[in-house]
Structure formats: C-alpha cells, structure tokens
Write a structure and sequence with these properties.
The structure holds two protein chains of two kinds. Chain A is α+β, with helices and mostly antiparallel strands. Chain A has a single domain, classed as Archease, Possible Chaperone, Chain: A, domain 1 (3-Layer(bab) Sandwich), CATH 3.55.10. Helix content of chain A is about 25%, strand content about 45%. Chain A has two helices and ten strands; from the N terminus they run E-E-H-E-E-H-E-E-E-E-E-E. In chain A, the strands form three sheets. In chain A, strands 1, 2, 8, 9 and 10 form a five-stranded antiparallel β-sheet that branches. In chain A, strands 4-6-5 form a three-stranded antiparallel β-sheet, covered by helices on one side. In chain A, strands 3-7 form a two-stranded antiparallel sheet. In chain A, strand 5 and strand 6 form a beta hairpin. Chain B has one domain: tRNA-splicing ligase RtcB (Alpha-Beta Complex). In chain B, about 30% of the residues lie in helices and about 25% in strands. The model of chain B has no long low-confidence stretch (mean pLDDT about 95). The chains are: A alpha+beta, B alpha+beta.
Chain lengths: ~140, ~475
C-alpha cells in the first residue's frame, strides 16, 4: 500500500498539512504534491499539454524556504493557469532552493479548492527520529 | 486541536463583553475584549481564536484593546473577526496579517422592486443563468479582460473605473464604502507578480465562501429605516460576497514575507510570524498601505463588475431593464481592510490605523463619510449568514465607537472544512435545502459540503449579540432563495 502523502491538521477556517519525509528534499517534494492534491482532482480530464518552470529561491531560513516554495508554486499555478505534478528538487541548502517543476494546463483538471497562500502561522519544520516533519497552514 | 477546550482566563464585563486580562501573557500592551454571550463563548473556546486575540495585543502602538467580534474564529496571525487600532504617531504598526490575504473581501447588497411571487416560478432559471454568466470557482477567469494599463487604472480608480466603462452608475459609487476607490493607492508598490496573478480575474466571484445569493426579506426590525431604504417584507434582494482575488493574495504574501524582516529592523517582538508588521510611517508600512489600497480598489471594481453581470442576468430572465426592476445598490462594505481613521483616545484626537479582519465598518448616523441619504440612519452594515439560514442588514450606532465603529462580518465558521466533509452528505444537504425553497449551484460538490449551514455558527445568535451590545441596530433579515457558490 502506498504511503500516505500527508495528514491534515484541523483548522476552523482553513487547512493545515503535516508531511513526513526521510530528508528535507522529500518533505519539500511531498509538500508540493500535497498542495496540488488539495487544489485539484488528480486524474486529468483531457490530454495533457506540458508546461515546466525553473524555480530559484533564497530565504532567511529553512522554514521560510518551505513557505516560499509553496507560495512560488501557488503563484505560478495561478498566474500561468497550470497544475503541477512533477517536482525535481535539484538543490536545497539551509536558505536556497533550485527546482524544476512540470505540469499541464489547469484546464485539464477538475478543480477542488482554492489555496490563497501558505502562511507562517503554526509553521514548523523539524527533525524527527526517522527523518523530517513539516507543518504548514494554508489560507483557503 | 479544535476539540481541545481553550481555558484562557476571561473576566465578565457584562452579558456581552469579556476581557482577556493584559497580564495573561507578558508582552500584551492592552487587554483583549471579546463580544459574545455565554453560548457563543463555548464555541469560541473550542479553537485557538482567543489565543490569537491575546497575540494581537502585542502589536506596537495598539490602543485600548485587542477586540473580537462574536463571529470570531481561528485565523492565522489575527483571528477572523478581530479589530485592532494602532496609534500612528506613537509608532503604531500596520500588519498585512491584520488584513488577510483576501484584501477587501467584502459584501454588497442590492434591492429590487420584485416581490417573491414575481420570481417564484423563475428562481431556478435565474440561479442557473447567474451560475452560467458569472465566472466562479477555483482560479476563475472573467469575460471582462483588461490590459495592463487598465489594470493599473483599476488599482487607483476602483469601482469608478467600472462605472466609467459602462458597468454601473454614479449612484453605485455613492453607495460604496470610500466611493469604491480609496485614496492613496500606489500602483508602484504592487509587484509585477501581483499584476500577473490578477490580470484575468476581474469580474469573477472566486471560490470557497464567496457567493452570490438571491434573497427575500422575511423580517423587518425597523420600519422607519426600511422605509428610508425602500425595503419591505417579501421583497427580493441580492447579496454578493467576493474580494480582490489573486491580486490581493499576492500583495498580502509579498508584504507578509517582507515584514518578517521588519520585526528585527524595528525591534518588534511578536509571538507569531504571521503578525509581522512595520510602523505605519515607515517606508515598509507606507508601501504596504499603498499596495493594500490598490488591492482594495481592485476588489471594489470586481464587485461592481459582478453586480453589473447580475443586473444583466435579471434583465434577460425577467425581460425588463435593471432600472425597471429596481436593482439599486444599498451598500458595499469591506470586511478585510486597514483604514486610517480619527478617534478620541484618552481625551486626545488620534489618527489610528484600524485593522478590520473579518469585521465590518459600522459608522453611526451623522458621520461625515456617509453619503447624504444615509447621514440620518447610519451606515448600512451587511451581514451574510450561511446558505441555509439568514442574512442581515444592520445600521451603525454611536455606541460602536468603543469598537472603532466595527461590527461582525458574518456567521463565523464552527466546523473545519475537513470536519464538514466527514460528516455532511452533499445529496442529503441539497435535498434538505431544496425542501426549504433554496436552490444551490456550485462549481464543485466539495464546496457545498464545506459551506453547509451546520459548518457555521447561527448568524441569528451572532447578530443578536452585536445588537444587544449596541454595536449595530437591526434593520431587516433576509432568507436565501438561490445561491451560487464558487
């Protein structure tokens, strides 16, 4: 059975996700996948038309890098009208990230929920016994 | 977690006001004051909203109290339903988190000259046509497409741009907070990313709790005020709830991120990064204020365009001009915004930066900012409820000076979206609403469940508290006939 991608953090008005990964890279990748599984139904309804973007980010620390990563994806998704499904983290340091993200036109998907932003409220990214765990609350 | 009870100390001031003492947390500059009755308080204690009321009291320059309306619930940084005023001359701050991502999310209400009997047979056609003609849903794009030059114009001219382009009349602007365009908008302070995110979304409703509702007045509370507003029992009204869409989200994100670094720069200690802020008079504070006003103007233009599309649908389905159908705007008011307003604090007149996050401005009779026709009754305050119960029209009162003329903004969520999804069946809910005479059209079944009436507090109880606390006076109550949701 496939491992669960994320668990939900109950929040009255919005929604939070808790993601576990073997390493930081996996936490960032799974966080992105979780974000788009909240936004859109995963099965495509039409033929895919591929889009891809290079992302380079610099942040004050690793936690804020995670929020910046998710917000960058939300911005690209909204401005370019795309849904992303493939996230290649080329390089992650404590404060920088390089990635290539691929997806297809949002018109190919049935949409579920609009995420306005990943927020800093309740944000955490910490080491746990078998890897790393992140918690992020979205504004819906 | 939501189910854990929150035992923050609360001192009873009277039946509708409760104080979180200033010594609850070291770092609070003022106490918290929560407007609620004992019943609502039980729900409020179920999440982290009260902790957030206490956290807001840390804002530098905050005066008198961190306030919470009875529809308060857990937000991020600020609670939803929070009001905080900071003294600009005393290093008072502005916080993007105190406005929220959906800058100038707000609501407008139109009256019609129609009675329920006039549209009873056509309500389904109306709702389906509204759903088809008004772009809604996640990332919805509108037919009203604008060039980049026009987008910059919208950010300064707000709803005035819409009216000048044929999407309304001067009276609409007179009946909109700030005339539909707040001064001091600075398009230079808006990032290219925000422009890009907003460009295709003018004239779109959006998703989540945004809605367009056809309603009928089912109860009058003040016949005099209703007469002055041209309202009577059985009359059909329309309510539109939307905001600044992607442009506003991006403005908030840009400045919420930027202001985290202001905390260190200005030596500010906040318990939550989402409460990042900067002095109103700092370069960062001024830039945010200029950008936030742009997003607010965009939202007013957006609601003006949505109203235009609504009028066109009514014309088509009912075969008469919107003027003949009496579809005039009663008022449009923001409930996520920061405004510079003058108040007397400890005997001195002060310029305050009033954050209203999930709270509605409620100016009293005689206030100079009100249009002439509302000068003697006070500002119309529009309180949408959930899609199965009621909505309200209220007016501001002088007593609300204690909340910087602010009132509640809606029912307030009770259940999380995931709780609602787990416990509510969409088909059963639609059937139940239809049996009450309410037609729902939504982009997705998920929205219907997440926005189910039982996911919200009872707006009747919330409005009862603001009325009994004297923050507003009830004018009339509406019930939904048809709802379109994103």
């Amino acid at each position: 059975m496939a491992e669960k991608l994320y668990s939900l953090i109950e929040h009255t008005a919005d929604m939070g996700i808790r993601i576990k990964g073997r390493d930081i890279r996996e936490v960032f990748r799974k966080s992105a996948q979780a974000t788009f599984s909240i936004i859109a139904h995963q099965e495509r309804v039409r033929q895919p038309g591929k889009v891809s973007f290079n992302i380079e980010l610099k942040s004050a620390n690793l936690e804020e890098l995670l929020v910046d990563w998710l917000n960058e994806l939300l911005f690209l998704s909204s401005a370019k009208e795309a849904i992303f499904s493939d996230f290649k983290l080329l390089k992650i340091t404590e404060r920088t990230l390089q990635a290539v993200v691929c997806g297809s036109s949002a018109a190919n998907y049935r949409m579920k929920t609009e995420i306005k932003a990943a927020t800093y409220h309740g944000l955490s990214l910490k080491k746990i016994p078998r890897g790393w765990q992140a918690e992020v609350i979205f504004d819906l | 977690m939501i189910s854990e009870r929150n035992e923050i100390p609360l001192e009873k001031i009277d039946d509708f006001r409760w104080r979180i003492p200033r010594d609850y947390k070291s770092g609070m500059h003022v106490p918290g004051i929560v407007y609620a009755d004992e019943k609502l308080l039980k729900d409020i204690r179920r999440d982290k909203a009260l902790e957030q009321v206490a956290n807001v009291a840390f804002l530098p320059g905050i005066v008198e109290a961190s306030l919470a309306m009875p529809d308060i619930h857990w937000g991020f940084g600020f609670p939803i339903g929070g009001v905080a005023a900071t003294d600009i001359e005393n290093n008072g701050v502005i916080s993007p988190g105190g406005v929220g991502y959906d800058i100038n999310c707000g609501v407008r209400m139109l009256r019609t000259s129609l009675q329920l009997a006039d549209i009873k047979e056509k309500i389904k056609d109306l709702v389906y046509a509204l759903f088809s003609d008004i772009p809604s849903g996640v990332g919805s794009k509108g037919d009203i497409r604008v060039s980049q030059k026009e987008e910059r114009q919208i950010l300064v001219e707000g709803a005035r741009w819409a009216v000048e382009n044929g999407y309304g009349i001067q009276d609409d602007l007179d009946c909109t907070e700030e005339g539909g365009a707040i001064a001091g908008a600075d398009p230079q302070a808006v990032s290219d990313r925000a422009y890009e995110r907003g460009k295709a979304q003018s004239g779109t409703l959006g998703s989540g709790n945004h809605f367009l509702e056809v309603q009928v007045i089912d109860q009058l509370y003040s016949r005099d005020t209703c007469d002055q507003l041209g309202l009577e029992e059985g009359q059909v009204t329309v309510m539109i709830h939307s905001g600044s869409r992607g442009l506003g989200y991006q403005v908030c994100e840009d400045y919420a991120k930027g202001m985290i670094h202001c905390l260190q720069k200005y030596g500010i200690d906040m318990p939550d990064r989402q409460l990042a802020c900067a002095p109103v008079n700092s370069p960062e504070g001024k830039a945010y204020l200029g950008a936030m006003r742009c997003a607010a103007n965009y939202a007013w233009a957006n609601r003006q365009c949505l109203m235009h599309l609504t009028r066109k649908v009514f014309e088509r389905i009912l075969g008469a001009s919107w003027e003949d159908l009496g579809m005039f705007l009663i008022y449009d008011v923001a409930h996520n915004i920061a405004k510079i307003e003058k108040y007397t604090v400890a005997g001195k007149e002060k310029n305050l930066c009033v954050h209203r996050k999930g709270a509605t401005r409620a100016f009293p009779p005689g206030h100079p900012s009100l249009p002439g026709k509302y000068r003697n009754i006070g500002q119309p305050v529009i309180i949408p409820g959930d899609m199965g119960r009621n909505s309200y029209l209220l007016v501001g009162t002088e007593k609300a000076v204690e909340t910087y003329y602010s009132s509640c903004h809606g029912a307030g969520r009770l259940k999380s979206r995931t709780q609602a999804t787990r416990t509510i069946n969409a088909d059963a809910l639609l059937k139940e609403l239809e049996s009450k005479g309410i037609i729902i059209k939504a982009s997705g079944r998920g929205t219907i469940v997440e926005e189910a009436p039982s996911a919200y507090k009872d707006v009747n109880e919330v409005v009862d508290v603001v009325a009994k606390a004297g923050l507003c006076k009830r004018v009339c109550r509406m019930k939904p006939l048809g709802v379109i949701k994103g």
